[in-house]
Write a structure and sequence with these properties.
mainly alpha; 58% helix; 4 helices
Length: 85
Amino acid sequence: MNVSVAQQPPANTGQLNALRQRAEGLLSVLGVNGDQKLCDWVHQRLGALQQRDTAMLHRLLHDIEKNSPNDYPYSLGMTQCDLLQ
């Protein structure tokens, strides 16, 4: 069985850069930005995204940010000093 998949356009560079910044912020807030292997993996995979995937991840990150508690990121046990590092 031969199934053809329509080729989707690559993600816009500006959108990818914005997504990288948002992902870095989330990794930092979650306290996993010190896990270099995870951070490298996220950045590597973000570069391979197509336009539709980028839009989906922007929406997901927006929903996470919007539905987080008002004291986010402090609700995750972080202090202001942690955020300055």
